[in-house]
Design a protein that fits this description.
Shape: globular
Largest sheet: 2 strands, antiparallel
Order of helices and strands: EHHHEEHHHHHHHHHE
Number of helices: 12
Number of strands: 4
Length: about 375
């Protein structure tokens, strides 16, 4: 019932994605030059790495949007990708620790973070599963396998440990299930397993408790737990309306930790000011708006849920990152999509956009539900 318009995808999302990726490459170099020089004696170290991820992601995007069949609904593709995701998540624990965590796999000298892929593969799986059992999804024997797949992936991410990504993955999976018609009663069963698990991982990591306590404390410890957020707010405030101008920020010079990763929005706000920060937010808002429109116009239930899931992935990750930067929530290691340094995050986010674009170029007269 549906047809594909070759390269008839949403041009607005496509060009905004290119703009954000290009801006991200520029800001990564701007925010990391001093660090790269001191640590690697190569000022372009992070720039070349980010540029490689950007070019690779865009090539994959162009390949995926040119595919005529809806690969995101293909059972072999979905289950194959999910299987690869689980293998990589388990493989993380066989790799040497990086920053006291098991978040990466290193294959042929290329480091990759499987938890980024997990968000995509779970959205695809849950959307496919809900459409397949749309009339019986609220039966426990149907719902529980889907919940178990989601919970197992989240548990592996928690064990790495990566609390922020695990929480985001759980919320995304829950949203796809909820939009697919799963009743609140079934979420109670999922919560019985998920809530105590998250609480346990919250309590056993002392630094997480400290971050939460510091967030709600009036007199904050600016030398320890609140240092990152305090420096971030100083950067944002120093930018004013017009900013200090590109490259002239000072907080990135070893005052602001993770300036090129989790707190890159602080550098943007300092150097480009309120106007630059609002421009970035506006571009993300347009992507979310267009993504929701694509979801509403999708020709199948699976496509609708997939498009909604990919859109919420971008929206929630952006919201979490910026609220941390502004001190509106406790610090979490969630990057700003398409802009923060990190090849795994960048490539997987571009792939999420690619799925959205592919869905947008499929037209039909009626949905199958």
């Amino acid at each position: 019932m549906d047809t594909i318009r070759r390269f008839g995808f949403d041009k607005t999302i496509f060009f905004i994605t290119l703009i954000l990726v290009a801006a991200g490459v520029l800001m990564v170099f701007d925010a990391s030059g001093a660090l790269a020089t001191e640590k690697f004696h190569r000022p372009f170290y992070f720039l070349f790495s980010q540029l490689g991820g950007a070019l690779g992601g865009i090539v994959l995007l162009l390949i995926l949007v040119s595919v005529r069949v809806p690969f995101y609904e293909n059972k072999i593709f979905i289950y194959g990708l999910l299987g690869v995701t689980y293998v990589l998540l388990v493989l993380c624990f066989t790799m040497p620790m990086v920053a006291s965590t098991h978040r990466w796999v290193n294959i042929l000298h290329v480091r990759f973070q499987p938890s980024e892929l997990a968000k995509l593969s779970l959205i695809l799986f849950l959307a496919h599963y809900v459409q397949r059992f749309k009339d019986r999804i609220n039966e426990l024997k149907i719902f529980l396998p889907a919940a178990a797949v989601l919970f197992a992936a989240v548990l592996l991410i928690l064990l790495e440990p990566d609390f922020g990504t695990a929480a985001l993955t759980m919320v995304l999976g829950g949203l796809v299930l909820f939009l697919g018609g799963v009743c609140l009663r079934n979420f109670f069963y999922l919560g019985v397993a998920a809530v105590p698990t998250f609480l346990i991982f919250l309590v056993i990591a002392h630094y997480r408790i400290v971050r939460i306590i510091e967030f709600f404390t009036r007199n904050k410890d600016l030398d320890n737990a609140s240092f990152q957020v305090a420096q971030s707010k100083l950067a944002v405030g120093a930018g004013g309306v017009l900013g200090t101008s590109l490259g002239e920020g000072t907080q990135k010079l070893f005052f602001l930790p993770c300036a090129h990763t989790d707190f890159i929005f602080s550098v943007i706000a300092e150097e480009l000011g309120l106007l630059g920060a609002l421009a970035v937010l506006a571009l993300f808002a347009i992507i979310v708006w267009r993504g929701l429109r694509i979801s509403l116009k999708a020709t199948t239930m699976a496509a609708q849920l997939t498009a909604a899931g990919m859109t919420f992935l971008l929206a929630l990750q952006t919201l979490i990152n910026i609220t941390v930067v502004l001190g509106l929530s406790p610090a979490k290691g969630v990057p700003l999509p398409l802009i923060s340094f990190g090849r795994s995050s960048l490539v997987c986010t571009i792939l999420a956009v690619a799925v959205l674009l592919h869905i947008s170029q499929r037209k039909g007269q009626a949905r199958d539900y």
